Amino acid sequence: MYPEGRHEITNWGERLDALYPGGRRSILSLGEKAGFSFNMDAPLSDTMDSHRLYLFAEAQGRKGEDLAQCIGHQYFERGKPLADRDMLCACAREVGLDEGAARAYLEGEGGVAEVRENVQQNLRLGIHSIPVFVFRSAGFETVVRGSADVATFGRVLDAILSAAAEQKQASKDET
Description:
Elements: H1 12-19, H2 23-33, H3 48-59, H4 64-77, H5 85-94, H6 99-107, H7 112-124, E1 132-137, E2 140-145, H8 150-174
Antiparallel strand pairs: 1-2
């Protein structure tokens, strides 16, 4: 979560390449195909407030996903820091939340404990960055990083189908 924005890597593109060699190139290519122009110079910053505001938005009528999209656009395409409270509150307003209430929430301690617990749960699952997809089905569980290629996702989906078929066969054999 980069408390206070401190990290030896300073921007998103560097982090992608550090975690997933070639990740920057892969994400830029995928983004271009989907009509997005990513800003790889987006600064790494403390993400606590963006996570907290998501929780606030969910409690205010399940607007968390809309808020996350707005924040994502501001960060990934426009390069705004995730710790920028003015940007966060503007996104809250854009999705129909009360901007003053969002700012007051961020000025307090609401959601801090819940975000910290969520982070610990994710770390226990081996999740250290986003996007990450956790597949759980038919006794099969795996984690796939969002920068993985299509073939990796295909192998995971094939494994899920195989596990489901084996589970179905095992239940037939028991009867």
